[in-house]
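Let us begin with a simple case.
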Amino acid sequence: MSAIYRGMNQSKLDAQYDQRTLVPHAGEYMARWAERSASIIAAKGPETLRYGEGPNEIMLVFGDGPSAGAGAHLHLHGGAWRQLSAGQTAFVASGLLGAGVPVAVADFSLAPAAALGAIVEEVRRAFLCLAERFGSVGVSAHSSGCHLAGMLLDPAWQESAGVKGALRGLVLASGVYDLEPVRLSARNTYLSLSEEEAAALSPHLHLPKGPPPATLLWGDGELDEFQRQSRAFAAALRAAGGEARELVLPGLNHFDVYDSFAEPGSEVVAAVRALHSPTAAAG
């Protein structure tokens, strides 16, 4: 088979964008996340906040009003754009609430029922809703959620939406930011991206000058392509004049990294807490 991307043939590229290549028991993690999420929802009784008219346009908001000048926090789940929900990933609030601000875990539509561009617009509406309510918003995400978070940086959208300066910063774990290899992989059987759409929806091609601070994290047990994508996006942010810190988490695979969002003492939560310190300004 001939090479189609960075020296990889089709089967190797497909494997690089299939987490079960390295973690065949991924379903066990997801089942545990759902159980933990049900427990924290029952214990905390989050507000259900609607941010749009679509059936999936809701957020679960944990916590009370923010500390002065600290804003609120938006979390975007992963799931390869076609799995998971706020109800299955709300467990992250048990760690993220340590930042001392309200935490909104967003729901949004999934592929293939919704086109990726439409999902991006939903996430942008969620961000706008929180920005209008709390003034500024920090954002964290995992896996494909990092792609959606990255699209909040698009300067053309920020300008048209009137939210320039409302994004405090990003904490992105194990993400994807360049959709061209995704388009060429088996994932495109449900994303159906054209070459033009992949470019229009790739965050690394749509960065503002002086982007807000970002921390990019990944485990050393991740697929090579996910590690490369994180390093490349951090470099692109720095080239645009931003502060982008890279943090490799030893001994963790893609799904272990997501577990760390629920651990108050983890490096992921420390990075989120830094976004919301009273002295941290929105970017």
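The second case is a distinct protein. As before, the sequence precedes its structure tokens.
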Amino acid sequence: MRARILTGLVGIPLFLGLMYMGKWPLLALVAGMGLIGFHEYSRMWKNKGIQVGLIPGGLITLALLLRAGLAPEQDSYVGAILAGGVILVLAWVLFRFEQVDIVDGLVTMAGVLYVGFMLSHLLLLRGMGEGTGWDLGLKWVSLAFFCTWAADTFAYFVGVAIGKRKLAPKISPGKSIEGVVGGVLGAVITGLLWGPVAGISGWHGALIGFVISVVSVLGDLAESALKRYAGVKDSGNLLPGHGGVLDRFDSSLFVLPLVYYIAALFFGLS
């Protein structure tokens, strides 16, 4: 717990500072997170005898993140990158067919979508509304992270205090239904308070907080299922007390696309 708290005291202000700066500093951070996250993903699958293509998968992941940071308005680039990525991974499988097979290629592309595509929405969300106010994207990305962190924190403490009924014991034995309810409450309160800051009503913020709390649990369970399948406790050891990048951002990988498309489809932000 001490290592977890110390990492948070150092890491959260640094992360928020780079989030505030945006542009190149944030792009460098997210690109690094994406590459490290993809490497963690490949290591977990290696435990099951599946070889993930680090070079082709890492290149496609990086391309998706660079597109989100440098050309967010070019939606056609996503299709081009993914189509080119499929060809690249297929070539990797065919030219190394004695060492890898089609399953390795499919798992590689799944990792690109899971890490690269999902994480790219952090940059897309941060860059929203640049023509209407430089800080609009910052407010929305803060809404996403603050609600996610509130859900995680409330769920932990409520679960420790009164948690009895297990949510998914075969996937994540530590999670309880009571903890999830606490997490929902924390995210709803945070959304209610932060919604007006992001330019929406408090009730809209509370509703978004509720949806975030549900999706964050699904993201957490998805990574827990992958770790349990691979037989590992943590995806990595980069962050003392927290594990790896995927351990720390497992929920956010699902929350960030959700908030981005809510902002774009229901509030007309771009």
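The first helix runs from residue 2 to 21. The mean pLDDT is 91.
Keep these points in mind for the review questions at the end of the chapter.
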